[in-house]
Amino acid sequence: MRRALSITVLSALAGLAQAQGANTPFDCTGFLQFGGDIDKTRATFTQSPETLAWNWFACLNQPAAAQSPDLVWETMKPSDQVYLANGAQPLPYAQRVPVPPAVLTQAQAMGMNVNRMFHNLNATQQVDGLILEMGGQVPQAQQGQAVRFQLLMGPDTFNYIVQQKVYNVNGQAALTSDLNFPSTAWELKAAWLWIGNNPTYQQQLANDGYYIAQTYYQQGSEYVVGYAALSGLHVINKLNPDWVWTTFENRNNGKYTVTNAIPPTPMTNSTGPTTAAQPVNVSFQASYPALAQYALIGVQSNTTPTLLANSQLESAFQSMSSCFACHSTAAYSPNKGYFNFALKQQGGIVYPTAELPASDFVGYHKLDFVWSLKRAQWQR
Fold first, then answer.
1. How far is CA 130 from each of CA 23, 259, 277, 329, 371, rounded to the nearest angstrom?
2. In angstroms, rounded to a whole number, what is the distance separating the alpha carbons of residues 10 and 340?
3. I want to staple 323 with a disulfide (CB 3.0 to 4.6 A). Which of 107, 224, 245, 374 is the partner?
4. What is the pLDDT of residues 229-259, one digit of tens each?
């Protein structure tokens, strides 16, 4: 007599098969262009989405160049250097706006490497406008402070934005058709635990496998300079027409971030790691010691799985979080502004977990899933 295997067991077996890919060398050469063979990469993705997601993550976390202390993903273009305050055209992709002298002065006094990358952690609001608080095992001075965020983009994403002149709202208002980014477009969103200049706390986070970087943010007319620890990273690209959504976070985040309950409780992820991601995580974590405390939460392609969230980036609405569904609403209308994907329902606010009908977007031009365009300013 045959016994039917449950979907959960089948998914786990598929994940075990995919996990074998961690032992197969992956060529990171030209991975942002999918090695020049997008059809082959799509076939690889179809066979094992979680394995390919981890390989991308490993490639992004390689040194940007020989002997460089900076990682590949850190050299991507940050959104604050794309969507400028005056709506002006940004500098070319490889040309960076200099780090403010006041930041370098403070950094030098703190013993930082002024020749290394500095991340501008210029945001604290999650998608729903709320903040995620630090708590638990963070120092007293950090209790209740916000997790900070940063958006970055790959070269082909940036070049398309410049070519279409949509780096300001003027260009978006002048659109006569929907945007259509190239298949080699990439975008990242990072979440950071602020450390400041606390060597003991910094070492504690390093022991818990967090990547530590040199960072700053502006507070009024002053700059706050210090170290920060990477707690979560969204990695998306347009391998498929509806994009591919992958998200990673540190397994120790529950020690340092808390819910908004009274009293606060450790922040956990309710959407994953998915069944398919779990064995792949085990394999890759063993293969990459420097990344061993980071876990793939899951991969979403269209609406499979229906829900996918990063506890650091979408903590408050994990039960309604769908990368595909929310980003599919990215649209702009000269008369109505940006489309509002927060839906009023049952006396509260909900977020879409399935694609909305085309009739909802009459008068809008679609922004091809790229909600970071909402950071654009008017050029006056």
1. 40, 12, 28, 20, 17
2. 38
3. 245
4. 999 999 999 999 999 999 999 999 999 999 9
